[in-house]
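User: Teach me something about this protein's shape.
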Amino acid sequence: MPAPPTATAAEIKNSNTRYHDAAADEYDAKWGIDYGPVGQGQVRAKLEKALGAPPTAPFADALEIGAGTGYFSLNLLQLGAIGHATATDISPGMLSTLRATAERLGLEVQTVRTEAERLPFADESFDLIFGHAVLHHIPDLSRAFSEFHRVLRPGGTLAFCGEPSRYGDRIAAVPKRAAMIAAPAWRRLIRAPAAGWVDGEIESDGHELESEVDVHAFAPDQLRDLARGAGFDDVRLRGEELLANAYGWVLRTLEATAEPEYVPMAWRRFAFRSYLALQRVDTAVLEPRLPPELFYNLVLSARRSG
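Assistant: First, the predicted structure itself:
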């Protein structure tokens, strides 16, 4: 469910800030975010998928847009794929969690609270601008892409992963509905009580805004046009995750209906490992053969000439 069509840019940004502040502490657990070998492998594969090949050298200065809790920035730092990371987000809660995780991992990262449409950086400051599952939250994408182009150095790279496609977003509604039907039986099986919202208890701490933070689902040509319109060259776009995403939405929807502390660790391990198995099938079999618009996620890369 997207933000209301009458919502202003300020209202959308306020909902994003409040929701992500509220969700920051449990965000990594909710989405299965990992900072070990599994997470590093996922992030490396996503970046290489966007670029079309492994980078030939580390990016010296990298800027992440909508860094959240640090899934991409922190894993890329551990991989040595970037030298210095500047992580931005509209949510101070997310950046606080990112800093805590960076400290735990022994990593140095600069964090800046800012909007994507008004980046507080000098022209030509970065070699790489990247993000994961962030563009669909930004109200004014044309302005944001212009800012990306401004702060990227000539010859620099733009890469965004995990952006929902219009067709994939519609497909995702099917496993979500199926999971809601199956949820009572699933909760009985794992002996977990229903989450408060299932019985009509709605929190007012920001979590209730989750349905209002998304603004866009993209057609592939829309993302291409945004990049080219901002002055980028060598625009590349492909799809990502079909089977894994449908399955993932079943898992996430089921788990969202239960009180989190009652979901057994054995179930979480099974869910995560089976999701990774389907992700490998998508990567090896489906993604090279099917058009991007059939997948749930789109990955984009481009270059600033110079």
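Now, about its shape. The chain has ten helices and seven strands. The radius of gyration is 19 Å. If you'd like, I can walk through any region in more detail.
User: That's plenty for now, thanks!
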